[in-house]
Amino acid sequence: MGSMTWGVVPAVVIRAGRVLWPAPHPPRDGRRPPNPLQLGWEWRRAGARAVYVVSAEPPGARPLASAAAVLGLSALGWAVWVGGGIRDVATAKLYLGSGAEAVVVRALAREPDRLARLLQTVDADRVVVALEVRGGVVGGFGPYTDPASCLREWEQAGVRRFLIRALAPASEGWALDVPALRALARPGRRVVADGGVRSESDVRRLAEAGLDGVVIRQALYQGSLSAEVFAIPAVRGG
User: Fold this and answer.
1) Does 78 reside within a domain?
2) Structural domain for 69, as ranges
3) Gap between the Cα atoms of 116 and 89, Å rounded
4) Omega into 22 within 30° of 0, i.e. cis?
């Protein structure tokens, strides 16, 4: 597979083949949520070359509509990562077989046996482990609360790529924790920041921190970032 070095990547949350707008709530003006291919085409015209698809299908539902959206986006030339509700190897293989370059796992990563089966089944470059770090602490991943220890444990299991949402206490809730991300993105480890971005200056700080890229979530939907942000490159190449 390719290096999957992204730069700035929009996230899109979908259910039943439609975009939840803005994620994860429906439009307030009553308009029908857009088709993900329509939204993806608009972002591509603005310079984006990759997209992170988050499936919000109901628990237990086979995500065929989400897989179809992945198939359509990959056919347009997108590098597609998919996350949300991937709790077993079969679902991961469904997305990868639909054209996704990688699957993003969170709950599955908490189960060593299932994670090992996935890594034995597909190329490790196509598996991304996601985690959230708040105030320097990780929750819900076994005995480790230190993020560096968590990442080392996963690396020993064969994981090579990480999607990390890092937040630090701020005067108004939580804010992007660039120092934490910089510390975790050591040489040889592929790290993409996940959300927490509120401004173009946040993106530029991440671009200078040695990350592979950043996923943009609410800031893009809410208008605090324009599509021009896609032109900001990540410092570290593939």
Assistant:
1) yes
2) 7-231
3) 10
4) yes
Q: Kindly state whether residue 237 falls inside one of the protein's structural domains.
A: no
* pLDDT the model gives residue 89: 93
What average pLDDT score do residues 204-230 get? 84
CATH number of the domain within which 116 lies: 3.20.20.70
Residue 175 located in a structural domain: yes
Nearest-angstrom CA–CA distance, 175 and 197: 8
Number of domains in the chain: 1
pTM (two decimals)? 0.87
